[in-house]
Amino acid sequence: xxxxxxxxxxxxxxxxxxxxxxxxxxxxxxxxxxxxxxxxxxxxxxxxxxxxxxxxxxxxxxxxxxxxxxxxxxxxxxxxxxxxxxxxxxxxxxxxxxxxxxxxxxxxxxxxxxxxxxxxxxxxxxxxxxxxxxxxxxxxxxxxxxxxxxxxxxxxxxxxxxxxxxxxxxxxxxxxxxxxxxxxxxxxxxxxxxxxxxxxxxxxxxxxxxxxxxxxxxxxxxxxxxxxxxxxxxxxxxxxxxxxxxxxxxxxxxxxxxxxxxxxxxxxxxxxxxxxxxxxxxxxxxxxxxxxxxxxxxxxxxxxxxxxxxxxxxxxxxxxxxxxxxxxxxxxxxxxxxxxxxxxxxxxxxxxxxxxxxxxxxxxxxxxxxxxxxxxxxxxxxxxxxxxxxxxxxxxxxxxxxxxxxxxxxxxxxxxxxxxxxxxxxxxxx
Length: 430
Fold this sequence. Notes:
Blueprint: H1 4-11, H2 14-17, H3 20-35, H4 41-62, H5 67-78, E1 85-87, E2 94-96, H6 98-101, H7 111-123, H8 138-141, E3 144-146, E4 150-154, E5 157-162, E6 168-173, E7 180-184, E8 195-212, E9 215-216, E10 223-235, E11 250-253, E12 262-265, E13 270-273, E14 276-278, E15 284-285, E16 305-306, E17 309-311, H9 317-323, H10 335-339, H11 355-371, H12 374-379, E18 385-386, E19 402-403
Antiparallel strand pairs: 1-5, 2-4, 3-8, 4-8, 5-6, 7-8, 7-13, 8-9, 8-10, 10-11, 10-12, 11-17, 14-17, 15-16, 18-19
Helix pairs in contact: 3-4
């Protein structure tokens, strides 16, 4: 980020040369093209676009908005700029606690005990460690009760976060189709992966009653809590990833034999949603959760799981900066993961890029840096300038220079996570 101010002075802010606005406008053109009869397309598209603009202005004057804009208005009204997440206030889907405590689903094994441990840990303000609270006894858990023994199940969770370029953005977590999330890892030893990953199975709201002497709600009354029921993923043992090796992080579901394969998570711990891509070469397996009956851990038509997943660190620029050494402004991570190098790193394969090619690139950059005039090197000290060499071996610094740069609940009104087409937060279908 140290070259950001300098880059703006040369080329202007990123909105000038970004293709994002053009891509959003292109969606409108394709949508309107499909509504016509494919004859005299430009004229038809222009007329339809004008109608959409007139309709939008009329809706704004009368206070009539699309479903998406109504949801945005509710979110902006209920959430302040400092709110980390938002879950809807609906109580339509109320479930009895025994739905999970008496379930034959292996994912619900120890459901009530784990939920009590999670609630106790939050009430006592313990630092989150995966809810491995070995100090809690059965006597401690007896102090925790759920009001009316009812769980309110919700559809979506919206997580607000700050991007690498100091902008506000939001991810929508939905257990049905966008269920994978990431959080900061509490592990701080060198080489530990900076993030933990989980798949959200359900989103609950509960009214907690505690009579524990260290976490009592007798005076304050029942305390409302939002809780995520998750299935944890772990990093593949012995697998090393990173830019030096040319590998994406690789994770897989924790085996059901582990008592903490399923657990609970506070929404406040989530950084943002993540994109997990199946490792097709490793195939699928039923050994991680051995059941052929319907389970909350899988979709209704699935009987097994992908054995491993690759973490998509290139889904956008903010996600890339979270894995790049140094991170972005405001990002927090275990810097030891980026700075430490295992002893056997030299013996690890380096992906598609070979060591010879990298040595050649390093020698090439050293040659360019040595041919740069001292005055220019002092003026542009933070940046490495590559200059084109002429045929006779002399460097020509008047040519174009290239600089290295780093790449990139709702209130249950909406029961689906599909966005209507729009242009610049404008023309959504009514």
